[in-house]
Amino acid sequence: SSHPFRPLMCFTLMFCVLSVTNVPPPHSTIRPGAPVPVNTDNPGVRKAARFGVYRYNNSSNDLFLFKESQIKKAMVQIVRGLKYMLHVEIKRTVCEKRDHSSLDSCHFQRKKNLQRMLTCYFEVWITPWTQKVHIPVAQCH
Fold first, then answer.
1. Which of 24, 69, 100, 129 could form a disulfide with 91 if both were Cys (CB 3.0 to 4.6 A apart)?
2. Is the pTM of this model over 0.85?
3. Strands, E assignment, the chain
4. What's a BP term from Gene Ontology annotated to this protein (predicted)?
5. What is the chain's pLDDT, residue by residue, as a tens digit (141 residues)?
6. At residue 22, what are phi and psi to the nearest 5 degrees?
7. CA pseudo-torsion sign 108, 112, 114, 116
């Protein structure tokens, strides 16, 4: 189909996302527009950052899972849903990928030689009313 979204229901075997959130479409008075800054503590921003981390973990060769440690900057754009543009620091956790851990219960590495931090830029496009997530950009270095 020509629909711009592909459902990414399972980011890995470990991270199957059944539902993003049950938010109705943005009110019709809100017009699509340019990206605007949004608070990094915003629940939608935090959820989008986690989706970006899932995408990173799914494509990395690291033995360990990474988790967001700090959201440095967040923008959101209303465009057939919400498109988040996020600058996020992620750090290596003590959880190994093969353990199928929930990231919420994964602590950051304490061993100096295993600690690792990456700076990432994620674009996460969420259409809450269709419960679809698309992550066109996930760049970490």
1. 69
2. no
3. 36-37, 64-78, 82-96, 117-127, 132-140
4. positive regulation of myelination
5. 444 443 443 343 333 333 343 344 555 445 678 999 999 999 999 999 999 999 999 999 999 999 999 999 999 999 889 999 999 999 999 999 999 889 999 999 999 999 999 999 999 999 988 889 999 999 999
6. -105, 65
7. positive
Pull the structure tokens for residue 129.
């009313």
Task: Tell me the C-alpha to C-alpha distance, in Å, between residue 133 and each of 26, 38, 79.
Answer: 16, 19, 13
Question: Is residue 64 a contact partner of residue 94, using CB atoms and an 8 Å limit?
Answer: yes
Amino acid at 60: S
Q: Helix H segments across the chain?
A: 43-59
Q: Which two tokens stand for residue 139?
A: 């760049």
Tokens read off for 46:
């935090």
